[in-house]
What we know:
Blueprint: H1 2-15, H2 26-37, E1 45-47, H3 61-68, E2 102-104, E3 110-115, H4 122-138, E4 142-145, E5 152-156, E6 162-164, E7 172-177, H5 186-197, E8 212-214, E9 263-265, H6 280-289, H7 300-310
Parallel strand pairs: 3-4, 3-5, 5-7
Antiparallel strand pairs: 1-2, 6-7, 8-9
Helix pairs in contact: 4-5
Bound molecules: zinc ion.
Protein name: Metalloendopeptidase
Binding site for Zn(2+): 191, 195, 201
Active site: 192
Amino acid sequence: MEVFFLLISIVLFSGSKAFPVDDDDSDIIIVDSVLENSIDGDDSIIDVSSLGPEAFGIPKNESGDNVAEWTESSLMNPEEMGGYAEGDILMPKFARNGIRERTVRWENGIIPYAIDKAGYNRDQQDMIMKAIADYHRLTCLRFVPYSGQTDYIIIKNTNTGCWSSVGRTGGRQEVNLQAPGCVSKKGTILHELLHAIGFLHEQSRPERDDFVYIQYSNIKPGAENNFKKADTKRTSDFGVSYDYNSVMHYSEYAFSKNSQKTIVPKIKDMKLGQREGLSRGDVKKVNNMYNCKKEEPTSGWVGQVWQSFFGTKT
Ligand SMILES: [Zn+2]
């Protein structure tokens, strides 16, 4: 529907001299690029305009230096230590198109991937494979080894922190998981892959102020931008209510300047920022985004662990 309106507005815009015509027609090119990439119409489009222009850039060693200092006892998660949009979102700049405010889903939920194995030891490679196995067990997504597909992700270890772009941007796209910080916990890997799959952060949801207090006085100067909310008209919750357990939720101390909490849940004693595994809500959202009917496990040892972790399915 959105593309339809954009097309209409382009027709109106280009057909009328009453509007000032800007030589920089990047808006129009953005729409073209969406159409080129779009496989199954409007449904596949992911709007990333809420991230703002700072999401588009290049990897930075400075972010890597911060993540190199992360340990399991750090107050925040390693992906909250980067200098990218919301800490860990980095969209590629396209030579021809400039900034693109929309990406798309992976066609049929198939994500070709490669791992730069030289960058990881055996345990770290295993951790990445465990994260991928979780997606296979719980969702309809299929990560398939790269074999020449046009669009694919490459997981690599450079000294630039933990980061990914959101959705399928087209062509080769990098997911950087700096070792050891970004591959210490399975949840960090699941988190970055969820960005590549098409999701933003949980606390960026338009209704988040109903669920958490943001303590602006504790946020590092200049990092306030990371706490922006997405536009309610442009985002979908995929039928899942606000999820404190989401692997996409920041920790309580994200971007803190003083080791005081920057996010306080409105429910007492609720923990934020877990990076152990996908939450029930995360799984549901992925499956709803990709039109997957898969039921969560209720039997066998996987089902037992799952049900005891999240409570019996209702
Ligand atoms: Zn993130």
